[in-house]
Design a protein that fits this description.
Elements: H1 3-13, H2 21-24, H3 44-50, E1 56-57, H4 58-70, H5 83-91, H6 102-114, E2 116-117, E3 122-132, E4 135-145, E5 162-174
Antiparallel strand pairs: 1-2, 3-4, 4-5
Helix pairs in contact: 5-6
Amino acid sequence: MSSFEVRTRGAEMMLLVILVAASLAMAPGTPAHAGSSAPLAIANSELERVGCPAEVSLARAVRDFNRRAALDSTGRRQPPLRVEEVVAAIRCWDREEQPVSDSLFKVFLTIANTRRLPKGSYIFFIPGVVAINGYDVDAWWIDLRLGLDQYPTDMADMPVIGRRIRTIYITSRPTAYPFHESKN
């Protein structure tokens, strides 16, 4: 496992957030996917692992994402995600550069057209450091993942079904952990 993967995985694990007070105020028995503006009433660690428990509007998922991003030290300095940005990222997918099956592409187009995310989907962020060309580059990624509910117990073998929505390179500096190549 590369140092990038270790640092990124560590950042992903730090994404645990306490439920927002608004979700606790929901009436008992109110489904998490109801039309309210309250955040999804499920712990973020569970959402990351299995996705949304039911279909949810893209607007609501984006609002929930922005609430979570605002709690992250890198995320709070980034522009908020917008529904139109997600839709545009799906519609501008270059399938020659990033191949995807016809059936999966249709699922993403349905998201763009209906502005609804299917059960098992999740918009998440990855704050991280990329070590490349002798530099550490601070970065911010936003991804839309689908099918998380298909592999709830073993994320190690889970295929990545998703679309990168945004990549921002924030700053760079000489690497703190230089890799030494062996001289044979």
